[in-house]
Design goal:
Length: 653
């Protein structure tokens, strides 16, 4: 049931900002939290999921003139400890007016790290858990047990109905700095109510038979305090810019080469790029209004014991932004660095600062272009560089390193680098089963996927765009193809939402062009960019299964919708224990028209991961992503004007 109300409170923000898309400051977060507490008299039971900037309409942003007054509105999701449901609303921060409010009685808020940290001691103290350890001969090591709570989805279990719950998996350390993921306690789980911290059930899958899988004891560590053998250090490789970086930063606005854009950040999506444009021939040309990774899901492929429940939405259930790292100079990024801090609310609404949350720097990008005239022996070569905007989040055992690259030639590239520690379970040595790989004696890494969904609010040369599917086809041998060598490109506009639910097809070398039918290049074709889906993932979770229903966005690599301010997340606003009734499949049933209008392109991509022994104890970065490439956007090579240069610091070794 939805309940809408309005309310007014006096007061002012006392905050400074310079653009309608500037992120909420600590002062504004404090103001919003104050208004929430005054409006909702829940006392110590009040919990905050998110407080974010309510982004103004596109019309307001596009019409904004520097120095003009700005209405600052904070949107929020809050919940009451021990009570189901989430209240969403919006406050005008200057007047204090409650502009909108709705109670979603079946929604469950994201899980906060403050809640997770309380769980371990509760589980360890539970008599049923201690008895399960005693049966395994592990009770004396209870203090070394590490309890990792996982979200549960919706499998129809009666005990979970009307509750906000987590299912806990168990590992253990053998000494304080030990890598506990090397020592899984297999088949032992605790179900806990997050709101009340009540342990609802302790499940021991081997209790009836007593045939316990032993805890692997081989030490497999990564901490520099623990490791003793290191290879000799590499020769120093310094990134030096004696004249400073080539970019400039004014508040949240970044200008570099021909590019300009704004940095955004929020607790759920993390890093966001706003109003990305490229200036060419004296004219600023918009490309993207807003770009983010709006969701991700990790479906695991094993039905064994409680592992079937592993289908986590690390963005929508935990929050990429809330779990972002403070980046270290000279480690996470090299060169002349500019950092952006992030201000986010904690679970009680108080602002907390994540220092150095977003890194901005330049990198050499190899050759831009080169040609040797074999007749004159004249050589022309230009080197390229790229701008890197990055943020890294730790979600449990995994690190997700998010990189946006802007290239001088107009390319936009996104990379997700997955690292950290694979999720592990235990097996009898040499018997990993059908659904995983034995990565160390007695340690199994189960097959799984990481599927991300990019939300790309396109505006190629303006707001009215169309998506065109581009397939290559070989002609049959015959009069039109007498030599058997003919192949050509066929283009088809995607006119409606159902028509635009598309999959990558390697057999057709498929890609998609986003064009502006009203803007033409010098050969009379619509200007455009193409989406190259280089990391398409074939889903293996059945779309009608309990896990598949919640993550149906992974069933297609491309979705296109007309812009709607309320359609922000491909699996819906609240995915924690959701039934999968919201998001892209629901919205696109309306089959709205897509031609020559304001559209959002949703691209699902990711990693298909059967773990290797080389992925343990820490996984080297595995990379996935996509590219947005100019395709008729420019009349010719846009970097033909790069000046010829030679790097004076290079030398022969």
């Amino acid at each position: 049931m939805d309940i809408e109300t309005s309310h007014t409170k006096p007061g002012g923000t006392g905050a400074s900002f310079s653009h309608p898309l500037d992120r909420l400051s600590a002062t504004e977060l404090t103001r919003a939290a104050q208004l929430i507490r005054e409006c909702f008299s829940w006392g110590d039971d009040l919990r905050v999921e998110t407080i974010d900037l309510d982004e103004p309409s596109k019309e307001v942003v596009r019409a904004y003139v520097e120095g003009a007054p700005i209405q600052r509105v904070a949107c929020f999701n809050i919940y009451r400890r021990g009570v189901m449901g989430v209240v969403s609303g919006k406050f005008d921060l200057e007047s204090g007016a409650l502009l909108w409010q709705v109670f979603r009685e079946d929604a469950r808020a994201m899980v906060a790290i403050e809640e997770v940290l309380q769980i371990e001691s509760k589980v360890k103290a539970d008599p049923r858990f201690r008895e399960a350890l005693r049966r395994r001969g592990l009770l004396d090591e209870v203090d070394f047990m590490c309890i990792d709570p996982w979200t549960v989805g919706d499998f129809g279990h009666v005990i979970e109905q009307g509750r906000r719950v987590l299912n806990c998996f168990v590992w253990m350390r053998t000494f304080p700095l030990d890598n506990y993921y090397a020592h899984p306690v297999e088949g032992l789980h605790a179900l806990i109510d997050v709101s009340t911290l009540e342990v609802l059930k302790v499940e021991d899958h081997f209790e009836e038979t007593g045939d316990y899988i032993p805890v692997p004891r081989t030490p497999l560590n990564y901490d520099a305090e623990v490791l003793s053998d290191f290879r000799p250090p590499s020769a120093p490789l310094d990134v030096v810019q004696p004249e400073g970086p080539g970019f400039s930063v004014q508040g949240n606005k970044v200008s570099w080469e021909n590019w300009d854009f704004r940095i955004g950040f929020n607790g759920r999506e993390g890093l966001v790029l706003h109003t990305v444009g490229y200036t060419h021939d004296g004219r600023r040309r918009p490309i993207l209004y807003r770009a983010s990774i709006a969701e991700m899901v990790v479906p695991y492929g094993t039905p064994e014991r409680s592992h079937y429940r592993k289908n986590v939405f690390d963005s929508g259930e935990i929050g990429f932004g809330r779990m972002a790292n403070s980046l270290a100079l000279g480690c996470d990024c090299l060169g002349a660095i500019h950092y952006f801090d992030a201000e986010l609310p904690d679970v009680f609404g108080s602002p907390r600062t994540i220092k150095n949350c977003v890194c901005l720097h330049e990198e050499d990008a190899g050759l831009s272009w080169k040609h040797t005239d074999v007749r004159t022996q004249r050589v022309d070569v230009r080197r390229a560089r790229r701008l890197v905007i990055s943020s890294i989040s730790t979600i449990g055992n995994y690190e997700y390193a998010s990189y946006w690259y802007l290239h001088q030639d107009g390319r936009i590239e996104y990379e997700m680098k997955a690292t950290g520690i694979i999720n592990t379970s235990a097996c009898r040595p040499g018997e990993p089963g059908r659904f995983g790989t034995e990565v160390a004696p007695g340690v199994v890494g189960h097959i799984h996927q990481h599927v991300f969904c990019a939300r790309l609010d396109m505006e190629i040369d303006g707001p009215n765009n169309t998506v065109v599917e581009c397939d290559t086809r070989a002609l049959p041998v015959g009069p039109d193809n007498p030599h058997g060598n003919a192949f050509l490109m066929e283009e088809r506009p995607l006119r409606s939402e159902l028509e635009a639910q598309r999959d990558f097809d390697f057999g057709k070398m498929r890609y998609w062009r986003i064009i502006n039918p009203g803007e033409k290049n010098w050969v009379g074709q619509p200007t455009g960019y193409k989406l190259e889906a280089g990391s398409s993932v074939q889903p293996f979770t059945h779309p009608d299964s309990p896990s598949g229903r919640r993550g149906r966005f992974i069933q297609h690599q491309l979705w296109v919708t007309p812009f709607d301010v309320d359609e922000r997340f491909p699996a819906g606003e609240f995915v924690n224990q959701s039934k999968g009734e919201e998001g892209l499949p629901s919205w696109t049933r309306a089959n709205r028209r897509l031609e020559n209008t304001d559209i959002v392109v949703w691209h699902s991509f990711g990693l298909h991961h059967l773990p290797r022994p080389e992925d343990h104890p820490v996984q080297p970065c595995v990379v996935c992503g996509f590219k947005l490439m100019p395709s008729g956007f420019f009349d010719q090579n846009p970097v033909i004007d790069l000046p010829p240069t030679t790097n004076a610091r290079s030398c022969c070794a």
